[in-house]
Design a protein that fits this description.
alpha/beta; Rossmann fold; seven-stranded mixed β-sheet; 20% strand; globular; binds 6-phosphogluconic acid; 6-phosphogluconolactonase activity; NagB/RpiA_transferase-like; Probable 6-phosphogluconolactonase; Glc/Gal-6P_isomerase
Length: 266
Amino acid sequence: MAFSGVHRDRGELRIHESVEELSTNLADYIADLSEASVKERGVFAIALSGGSLIGLMGKLCEAPYNKTVDWAKWYIFWADERVVAKNHADSNYKLAKEGLLSKVPIVPSHVHSINDSLSAEEAGDEYEFDIRQLVKARMVCVSDISDCPKFDLILLGMGSDGHVASLFPNHSVLDVKNQWVSFITDSPKPPPERITFTLPVINSASNVVVVVTGESKAEAVHLAIDDLGPNCPSLPARVVQPTNGKLVWFLDKPAASKLESVQFCE
Ligand SMILES: O=C(O)[C@H](O)[C@@H](O)[C@H](O)[C@H](O)COP(=O)(O)O
């Protein structure tokens, strides 16, 4: 690894020499969290995002993880989803199903995706209701400091504009506090209609991992992590700050190239 350390208030930074190295370490990290969670409470509630993240998780489908991870204990959710049919090329469900879920023995009834026959608003409401039932059944923990669910792990990617999940810069969805799942119909990144975990839910998780690769994200990584004083723009990725949980950034060197807070060990 090119660098590994803890930032004063932006979580742990893990900067990798290559995307290949990042993928291996990411699979290892997720497998460890799964093991700890299954040991502690018998299940692992994990929320995925879309984009390049699923490809970067690919090593989980290979040895040793395909055999060693206790897949039957996984409960799968999405931190955000595009409101399109499940067989549509834009669907985050389809991406995860093809890239991960169909390759490991996940229990089909443990996969909690949106109802794709509803409007964005209805799909968001129904998804929140679904999660509420799983919190009642203790498959998902409840936060000790808010009324939010406490996912064992929320995995996020980040756009070059600093968005995470479907929380886009300067969008009113960033201010939603009284819901677990919200919706938007004007996403700047197509497709326009999406549902998303709200910020309080993301910040109530036990673990949040943000995975970012490539030079096109370097400026956003700098703005999301470095200490920029009072003039710091309020990037969605910057307000990801789990209250009682752990935040870890998985970066490759190009994505980390504008970070002021780190010195690479060559
Ligand atoms: O459904 C989505 O669009 C996402 O969940 C979104 O938040 C994604 O994670 C980022 O846009 C990064 O995507 P890339 O890693 O592909 O750039």
